[in-house]
Amino acid sequence: MGSEHCQSENAFRPHNRVSVHPYEEYHSKYGSCRPVREFEIAGKGDISLIRREVDRFFADRLAFWSEVRLPILITLSEAVTNVVKFTPGGKLMIFAGEAGPCFHIIDHGGGLDLDVLLCIISGKRFSTYSSLGMGFPIMVRFAEEVTVYTSEQGTILVLQFDLDRIVKENSAV
Amino acid sequence: MLSVRLEKDVPDVVVSLSGNLDMMTGEVLQETIKSLDSAQVHSLTFSIGGLDFIDSTGVGQLLKYYKRCAAKDICFRIENDNPEIEEILKIIGIRELVES
User: Is residue A1 part of a domain?
Assistant: First the structure.
């Protein structure tokens, strides 16, 4: 699951690591998948709780988790923070495929403004959407693929990681 | 959990942070900064090498203090020797504004 990339005809790709799809496509693609863990996102206390639980979960399952944990936890924290700040709430689903962890962040907000997303991706930082403006480049920097399913029903972010890439980049620092 | 320590008081203030700086913990830092008499502050330095975690909300809070300092002509610095935290500052772009 971690290495799957969407090939939808309706996809819009504003960045080589970001694709935007109609909301309905999420259910046809992932509807039958079952997460290994699930967390409600209701308030700001959930941000650190989720970080702590995800850290604990993968520390027991991935031998080299300590080498990749910070970029993944920061990326996840940005996505969950956006749910807390800008939507009535949502949930996080964790999938643990052979390629590594994959996170689905589902919110019940009014959908993502694609014009704003384009501005952020094109490097216009410190926008009026300050948190999204700073958080999204972090997600794009560390995740291998950021897949966005959005509509007026809400937004679903699917974050996939290339663990080998993160390990190589860390060892190069 | 965020630990905030006032290493040096006015006029050249140094605030040392350790733990996590995010949406949950930012208020702890806000309380310390509010307690300073800004009229007496010549410089404000955050020492953040002891942080285990910072996200864009935490960086945004530091950016807010930078803007306030800039408006009052107060020298503002962020000292950090943690390369993972430094990368976050660079991705967000705060290093284009704030010296180390």
Answer: no
| Domain interval for residue A139 | 12-172
Query: Mean pLDDT lowest for which of A10-19, A79-88, A114-123, A148-157?
Result: A114-123
Model ipTM value: 0.81
CA–CA dist A2, A162 (Å, integer):
8
Average pLDDT of chain A? 87
A48 chain-B contacts, CB cut-off 8 A: 20, 22, 24-25
Give the CA diameter of chain B.
Answer: 34
* CB neighbour list of residue A168: distance below 8 Å, 6 or more residues apart: none
Residue extents of the structural domains in chain B? 2-96
Q: Which of B23, B67, B86 to mutate to test the interface with A (most CBs of A within 10 A)?
A: B23
Domain B2-96 fold: Transcription Regulator spoIIAA (3.30.750)
Residue-wise pLDDT tens digits, B5-29: 999 999 999 999 999 999 999 999 9
Set of chain B residues whose Cβ sits within 8 Å of the Cβ of A84 = 23
Per CB-CB distance under 8 Å, the chain A contacts of B25 are 48
The tokens describing B35, both together, are 């307690």
Nearest by CB to A173, which of B56, B63, B83?
A: B83
